[in-house]
User: What shape does this take?
Amino acid sequence: MLPVPSPLLLSSSILLLIASVGSVFTDTPNASPLVSYALPLVGVPGGGLLFLCAIRKGQRETEEDDEKFRGGG
Assistant: This one.
């Protein structure tokens, strides 16, 4: 897992996914098609991976907090 807080992972995944999807629908004459299509090709899988990391890390942190609350650790 990445040594980053889970809320930061989640927010960065959301921003990356929004930028990736939004870049498909923009019609900017100054941007090259390579940039317009490379961002979704890299951003969607990357954003999905960050999202999964955030969910798994959040679950693990919750389990650790529950264990501390129950007095087991």
